Amino acid sequence: MFAGPARPVALVLAAAALAACATACATVRPSEREVLSRPEMNPQTEVMEAQFQSHFESAREGGFGGNGAAGGGCGCG
Amino acid sequence: MRLRLARLSALVLLLASRDLAAEDRVTVRGNYYREASTRVLAPVVYVEKDLPDERFTIGAEYLLDAVTSASIGAGAAAVTGGDFLFTEFRHEGTLRASGRLRNWSFSGFFRYSTESDWISRSFGATVARDVFGRAGTVSLTYSANLDSVLQIYGGRAIPWTGGQMSIGDTPGQPEPNGTNLLQLHYLALGYTHALTRRLLGGVGVESIFARGPQDNPYRKVRDGLDESHPRERNRISASGFLRWAVPRTPLALESRYRFYADDWDIIAHNPEVRMYARVLKRLIIRLRYRFYHQTGAYFWRADGNYSSDSVYRTADPKMTRFLSHMPGAELTLELDGLAKHRGLHWLRGAWIQATYNHLFQTNRFGNARLGSLAFSIPF
Fold first, then answer.
1. Of B48, B151, B255, B357, which one is least surrounded by beta carbons within 10 A?
2. Phi, psi of A70 (to 5 degrees)
3. Chain B stretch 80-109, residues whose beta carbon is closer than 8 A to a beta carbon of chain A
4. What is the DSSP letter of B288?
5. Is residue A69 one of the residues assigned to a domain?
6. Residue numbers in A near B29 (CB within 8 A)
7. What are the pLDDT digits (tens) for A28-67?
């Protein structure tokens, strides 16, 4: 069904869907997110560095993305 | 001039990830990039303020890009008359606004960037919704760039419509049906989820649809022919990450992977691992290792030889097959401890951060050093 360059994309999406299905029902309650709320566990603390990283990558590499641009939040609020 | 086809994604990153519960804050950051023939100094200041509270936040950013090159680009000696230091400045201003309504959040931005041979206007919006009791967030982002590409020729900035397809065309003259407008449309879908009490994961798919001149006006291939790239490019990347807080230790580990493909036949793989360690109460160390590999574009030729009737030609190192390794370290010191002292209470919530990454790569750009120093303080 998937061939060539689309195959890794499909695998990543399939793995993500599987992980989501396996864990989505076991919702982590807000009271259980103490560890996840630490700065070192919060991807948002790296946003400005990632911005520079994306800038450098776009000027020096053929690829792009993957620096968290598509992430809507940390899920630990 | 630097092609910044994915610059857009960096802005969207800041837009989409803005912490809606953040306090009023100002952050100053100095970025540094150095390779054999290019040095970049990029100071940036960012201010955000809640109006009147975290349900609505506005932000403004100013960035100065000072790029010093041994020459403008490959083959630029023919234009500049020789190899000498050339510095250009880019000014960039961005306005942002974000808001939250129950489980929904919204944000938008407008940015204007100008330099001697490139003017860029971009705008975008993100909508996100918390799901599963706020254990997860799904987001959708759209943004666009409308860039005017220019070429400094004979002391004047003239529109650049793309490399000449034929050696018989007159240099500096636009094609009859050409335009110097480069349009970038960016679309991203992402999902982040607290998988367990100690495990955070996320996936995303991003795409860019580019239309317009995407070659460098100054870069020449062998025999002095213009670089000539296709005017259309469709790009997609899929990525995922897992970040795990190791029990009974001050450590957090993260693994990332990104796959990238486009219709210029560039395929890239980009795994990365990171380790975060809170070694002292207020000191966090981050170590990282990033690997990158890409194939060459279908019109790239390793020997650099193109005939005068070649439709597409490139001398761009980004279009070649190469790989890179990048180890790096970062120190973040939270200044809350100092805030306990008399007269220093204003440091509560402030931090300083130093970052260094060393890039080893096999393309013509050569190895590079990346560093930054940042200070952030709430007000």
1. B255
2. -90, -5
3. 105
4. E
5. no
6. 48, 52
7. 887 788 888 888 888 877 888 888 888 888 889 999 888 7
Expressed in percent and rounded to 5, the helix, strand and coil fractions of chain A are 55, 0, 45
Instruction: Say if CB B282 and CB B336 are below 8 A apart.
Output: yes
Angstrom distance (rounded) from CA B211 to CA B106: 28
A59 Cβ under 8 Å from any chain B Cβ:
yes
CB nearest to B13's CB, from A6, A27, A54: A54
Task: Read off the pTM.
Answer: 0.85
d(CA B303, CA B305): 6
Retrieve residue B105's tokens: 């959040």
Q: Would residue A42 count as lying in a domain?
A: yes
- Structural domain including A16 reads 6-28+35-60
* Contact yes or no for B238/B204 (Cβ under 8 A): yes
The number of folded domains in chain A is 1
Asked if residue A56 belongs to a domain, the reply is: yes
Over residues B56-105, the pLDDT tens digits come to 999 999 999 999 987 544 444 445 455 567 888 999 999 999 999 989 99
Tell me the shortest Cα–Cα distance from B268 to chain A, in angstroms.
Answer: 6
Range of the domain at B44: 7-378
Q: What is the pLDDT of residue A4?
A: 59
Long-range contacts formed by B40-47: CB under 8 A, 24+ apart:
B40/B65, B40/B66, B40/B67, B40/B68, B41/B66, B42/A52, B42/A55, B42/B66, B44/A48, B46/A48
Residue B176 pLDDT exceeds 90: no
Amino acid at B309: D
Question: CATH number of the domain that B297 lies in?
Answer: 2.40.160.40
Interface test mutation site (partner A, options B12, B14, B17, B216, max chain A beta carbons within 10 A): B17
User: In this complex, is the C-beta atom of A31 within 8 Å of any C-beta atom belonging to chain B?
Assistant: no
B7-17 vs A47-60: helix axis angle to the nearest 10? 170
The answer to whether A73 contacts B128, with C-beta atoms less than 8 Å apart, is yes
Q: Which of B259, B276, B290, B377 to mutate to test the interface with A (most CBs of A within 10 A)?
A: B259
CA atoms B132, B199, B371, B85: torsion sign: negative
